[in-house]
Amino acid sequence: MKILKKMKLNDSITAFAVESPYPRPSVIKYGIDPGTVNLGVAYVHPTPNVAVMLYQIKLERADTVIGRILTTQNALTQCKLLIQSGARAVIEGAGYMASKYRQVELAEVRAATVMWFYRFGVQADVIPPNTIRKQVFGHGKTKNPWENIPDDVAAALGCAYYDSNNISIISS
């Protein structure tokens, strides 16, 4: 994947402008890899000359449910994502062997993310990670096919390219 520009937006957010690695979706798509410490966000616009934007957000771990919800929603707001009607968001759900990843806290982050998108009229789907990886990367065990972006950002990008209608978006 070609990185066009890497920017440090503030102490907690690193943004990557990249060329689209796959055919673009027909609507604006957001992909989210939820995390209590690392939150990956992808923004894909259907227009060919608009860079795909990826964000790696470093969060301070909150000790309360309300703290996690507010921290997540504030982080999404800081990305200044262009919100339009008809856009879709895909949020990575829990994996099969996910018990080691603080799933209760991650469930709160997922819920906060869904609520944030719905506040702006964007439909959000929570999809298991292996389902996303199989459709987008070609194999459910592929976590990051690119060496030049962080894993959480790659997961968010996979979410953004996932077709919630289960129609493959990857050209044969």
Runs in which pLDDT lies below 50 for 5 or more consecutive residues are: 167-172
Order of helical and strand elements: EEEEEHEHEHH
Mean pLDDT: 87
Q: Which structural class should the secondary elements be placed in?
A: alpha/beta
CATH class, please? Alpha Beta
Please, how many helices? Answer: 4
What's the total number of strands? Answer: 7
Q: What distance lies between the first and last C-alpha atoms, to the nearest angstrom? A: 19 Å
CATH architecture label name: 2-Layer Sandwich
> What is the radius of gyration?
15 Å
What spatial form do the alpha-carbon principal axes imply?
globular
The structural domain count equals 1
What would a concise description of this structure say?
Helix content is 30%, strand content 24%. It has helices at residues 65-78, 103-119, 129-137, 151-161; strands at residues 3-8, 13-18, 29-33, 38-44, 52-58, 88-92, 123-127.
